[in-house]
Inverse folding.
């Protein structure tokens, strides 16, 4: 049994259908990437796992269906989410933004905070700084840190490198690997940057217009024309 199984998922915003029979599986301890151009449906897939869209099909984590559960129950069940839009409180401090993430894991606050500071020392140095005054890279670190404060076994990360300098992207990649290797997290990222995804993930799913166009290991897809077609069209 896979750790996460998404089967024939269709997702809707009102009457508009954003995903069409998408199926994805993730093994425990694996990092996979959902890649595709802007508007391909990548964020919608993560939103659907978090219970934020209307869906048909099934989403199972460790054999238990997440469909129909509220977001709070999904987070309490071990799913952390670092959305691309950050969704931070801009006039709250770094520390307070992190503590917001601990709402469903209050008994683990000290341990998780120490883990976040170990991964991102800059956040401890600037714990009293308002997030509105931070760089994009620092805000991404806060977003990832806040997701870790929920004690997740499954971590969903939406567009972790968007708008970031290459050096910061490398730092984010190192942190994500540590989350998998040291914390045992299973990780799903979405990415427009296919090159970044290929350096981090073991397997890729290529989304185009809400449909899975290709899937496979990095080596299998590296020279696959379906990958470039998903970004640039036929």
């Amino acid at each position: 049994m896979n750790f996460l199984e998404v089967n024939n998922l269709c997702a809707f915003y009102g009457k508009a259908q954003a995903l069409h029979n998408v199926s994805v599986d993730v093994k425990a301890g694996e990092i996979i990437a959902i890649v595709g151009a802007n508007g391909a449906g990548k964020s919608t897939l993560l939103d659907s796992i978090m219970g934020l869209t209307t869906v048909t099909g099934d989403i199972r984590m460790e054999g238990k269906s997440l469909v129909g559960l509220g977001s709070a129950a999904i987070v309490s069940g071990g799913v952390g989410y670092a959305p691309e839009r950050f969704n931070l409180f801009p006039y709250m401090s770094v520390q307070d933004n992190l503590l917001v993430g601990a709402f469903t894991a209050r008994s683990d606050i000290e341990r998780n905070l120490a883990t976040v500071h170990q991964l991102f020392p800059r956040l401890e140095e600037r714990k009293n700084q308002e997030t509105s005054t931070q760089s994009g890279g620092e805000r991404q670190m806060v977003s990832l840190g806040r997701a870790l404060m929920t004690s997740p076994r499954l971590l969903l990360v939406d567009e972790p490198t968007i708008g970031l300098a290459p050096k910061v992207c490398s730092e984010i990649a190192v942190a994500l690997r540590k989350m998998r290797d040291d914390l045992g997290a299973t990780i799903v990222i979405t990415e427009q940057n296919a090159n970044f995804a290929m350096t981090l993930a073991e397997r890729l799913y290529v989304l185009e217009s809400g449909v899975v166009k290709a899937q496979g290991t990095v080596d299998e897809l590296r020279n696959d024309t379906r990958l470039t077609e998903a970004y640039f069209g036929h």
User: Anything to note?
Assistant: The mean pLDDT is 90.
